[in-house]
Amino acid sequence: MNHFYFMSLALGGLIFAAIQWLTGAMWSAPVRRISESFVAYLPFALVTTIILFMSLHHIYEWTHTEVVAKDVVLTHKRTYLEPTFFILRNAIAFLIWAFFGWKLVGNSIKQDATGDFRFNMKNRVLTPIFLIVFAVTFTMSCYDQIMSLDPHWFSTIFGLYCFAGLYYATLAAICLVAIFLKRRGYLAGLINDNHFHDIGKFMFAHTVFWAYIGFSQFMLIWYANLPEETGYYLKRFDQGWYAVSLFLLIGKFLLPFFVLLPRGAKRSEWRLIAVAIFMMVAQWIDVLWMVQPEFFADGPHLDVFSIGMTLGFLGVFGLCVSRFLSRNNVVAIGDPRLQESVFHHHQ
Predict the structure, then answer these.
(1) φ, ψ of residue 49 in degrees (nearest 5)
(2) What stretches of 115-192 show up as alpha helix (H) in DSSP?
(3) Between vectors from CA 276 to CA 275 and to CA 279, what angle results, nearest 5°?
(4) What pLDDT, in 10s, does the model give residues 294-341?
């Protein structure tokens, strides 16, 4: 759970930065470096990925030869769901992400040092390639690492569902770090209420986007009513998991939706802080909802150890981000759009 959640935050930071380079966005110049700092977590994500590789036999039932031999569905999937192939393709995907993270963020930092606009142009060439490759590799990783926990179930929209959650939490994390840095004086004179208004609008929009994708996945499975598909949701509507499913509808969607709906909420730092923290916790619960029912049918299992483990991951993520920001400029001072962004305002 924590491996996938925090790895997604790191990748979400890279996605956010890539979109800004691709579109040539002006408003985001003061906060883009924050998203770039999330990529600093990827080396630790590599460690947790290796641990995952070493633990396949304890996590995934399709790694047990005797189970596959007795199961017709798993027998047909054994060419793809094979441990060596699983490790190979996920390792390649991770190396691709690390390469683009190194190149894109590296070019951004070099532009700070030299002011050379060519680094910006290099990133505008690299980002379309990255986004296309990322769409394929991240979808594959979602299928492999999360969906194959129940190898009998499948959803062609599952990768998009995971991406919607990734960006949902990433925007909330960017908002929190931006407010923290502003209050500490690092972004003084560079970021104003209009920037937070735009971040709040994106948080609001992706709350709706996540709900749309989640409903689309559920509605199609409910409508078709095929036994090989409905088992996934029946498991999550039973016993203690029903309350979690209800929380995702009411908490993860409706609460941020209505809180962020007024214009004033998107310009209030305290309300943004509260909603952003809630959204990050809600996404963690969503990942729990995707993972734990495959191991605990009676409901969520949260003890001191699991909460402590999550806090440990959060601490490592925060350490990676803070070390990156302490070693580099908190703002991309080489960005030619920075000066224009400082005076960013809404009509």
Answers:
(1) -65, -40
(2) 118-145, 158-183
(3) 85
(4) 999 999 999 999 999 999 999 999 999 999 999 999 998 888 888 888
Helix or strand run (H / E) with residue 190: none
Distances (CA, A) of 219 to 2, 63, 198, 328: 28, 31, 31, 46
Measured distance CA(295)–CA(238) in Å, rounded: 14
* Residue 200, in any domain of the structure: yes
**DSSP letter for each residue of 74-136:** HHHHTTTS-HHHHHHHHHHHHHHHHHHHHHHHHHHHHHHHH--THHHHHHHHHHHHHHHHHHH
Range of the structural domain that residue 162 is part of: 2-342
Q: Which residue type is seen at 42?
A: L
Structural domain total, the chain? 1
Q: Is residue 274 part of a domain?
A: yes
Instruction: Please give the single-letter amino acid code of residue 314.
Output: L
DSSP 267-332: G-HHHHHHHHHHHHHHHHHHHHHHHGGGT-TTS----HHHHHHHHHHHHHHHHHHHHHHHHS-SS-
Residue 241 lies in a domain: yes
Residue 102 lies in a domain: yes
Quick one: which of 93, 123, 153 has its CA closest to 334? 123
- Give the global pTM: 0.94
CA-based end-to-end distance of the chain:
43
